[in-house]
Structure formats: structure tokens, C-alpha cells
Amino acid sequence: MTESLNFFLTNRFPRQAASRFMGWFSRIEQPLVSRLSLAAWRALADLRLDEARKTRFSSLHDCFTRELKEGARPADADPAVLASPCDAIVGACGRIEGTQVFQVKGSPYGLFELLGDEALGEKFRDGTYATLRITSSMYHRFHAPHDLSVSQVTYFSGDAWNVNPPALKRVAKLFCKNERALLRTTLQTGQEILLVPVAAVLVAGIRLHFLDVTLHLRYRGPNVMACDARFAKGQEMGWFEHGSTILVFAPRGFRLAAAEGSVIRAGQALMRLPEK
Fold first, then answer.
1. Is residue 244 annotated as a catalytic residue, yes or no?
2. Cβ(196)–Cβ(183) under 8 Å?
3. Catalytic: which of 143, 146, 216, 242?
4. CATH number reported for the structural domain that contains residue 259 in this entry
5. Which residue ranges of the chain lie beneath pLDDT 70?
6. 143 is catalytic
7. Of 124, 196, 229, 248, which one is least surrounded by beta carbons within 10 A?
8. Final residue belonging to a domain, choices 15, 36, 64
């Protein structure tokens, strides 16, 4: 009953219009609005700001996209470790069954449907995947999981379903329906890794440091953008403008280093690279 109510309250309204409104409202830099909004957020979620670089925020958006103090998220220095790109709760994860993965147990989706590219999906046949859910109170920036380069970004405009467990149980192939960006990356060791930030209800946009545009619901897709951006392990790549999810896909041979249901921080071990 509680899950059904949660799903109804967080999904059964004009989701895209609400997301656009939140994008506007969160940027209001009026002290009273900011204080009241942050107070309401603290009352509804476990919002901890002790690691934040700033102690005062001009708006909700300023707090959502907050940076952390230097050294707050050190990346695992082991070159055999693929680090988590973000703070998250580890959701469905494990071996890719052919080209099929799960958003939750019993609710599959296909890589082709998510990526829009059958040949690309085949590259990850029988590989490894992890679902990283960023809650609203968590740190919303994401980082390079290894020394890597980004060769292409494909932006898919879509819906704005909530990505919490009640919605994942009820909306088939939710990740394939929501707004998302596909980042094709190549590790310094040669393997290709896919990072797929998936937006959700009230997410105003996805921002990448190496693109001069904010990816949001008005930026219609799919749009394919070639690029050549290089990152050191742990270096910041971009941010969400609210909580959401990042899907990580690795080819065959990678092994999970984190368990489903665990809380992980950016920089901690998510997977291990194949042994040489």
C-alpha cells in the first residue's frame, strides 16, 4: 500500500511540466525562498552538507549541484579497479544475460532498446552491468571511473518517470523511456565502457563539462555528438540537476566489486578489470 501511494504521488501528474517548473524554481535566488526550500528539503530527506565546499547556498539549484571539499571523494588508486562514478545505492547489477539486463528482478530490458544501437549492444553481450541510483539528498556530480576518453555522446529525449524502486517495479523498460545520455568511453587500458546517466522526474537537466549545452527535456533527441574529451580517474565529468541514476556497462571479463543494495561513494571500487 505504501509503495503504491509512493508511485501515485511521484508519477501520476504532468511529469515533464513539473520537471521544467523545478528547473525554473530551483534557480530562484531570493533569500527567503532559498531558506524555506532548503528547510523543507531537510525535513523530507537526510540532507547532509558537512562535506560541501560552501556553507551557504543562493538557491536550491546551487545546493543540488554543490561541489564537495577537496579530497572528499578520492578515487581508488588501484589500476585494476573501475571506480563508481557517483555516490549511489547499488541497484540491479551482475552479468548481462546475452544482451538483456534488469532494472529490478523480473523486469528486463534490452541493451538495443536502451542504447538505440544493436551493434553497440552486441559489444557488451554477456558483460557486466551496475545500476547506480542517486537519491535526492546525495551528491549529484559524477566522475571518471578510470583514466579514459569520451568519443561520443548520444542524447535521448524522453519521459521523466521517477526512478525509485516502486516505479522500477511498475513501469516496464523505464530506463529505455526516460531522458538519458549515452557516453561512449574507452579506458586507457583499451576496453570500452558505457556510462548512461538517466534523468528522472524533477530533474531539470544533465550537464557535461565537455559539451557547451545542458541536456534537458527541450533538447530533442536522439542527437549524436562526437567529442574527444580525456579524463583522469576521479576527475569530475558533469552533474545532474537533481537525483537520478547512472547505468554502467562493461564488456565480458569485468567482475563486480560492490553488492546490490549497498551504498557506494564516488571513487570506491565498483568493478574489477579483467586479469591480464
1. yes
2. yes
3. 143
4. 2.70.70
5. 1, 3-24, 26, 201-204, 213-221, 242-243
6. yes
7. 229
8. 64
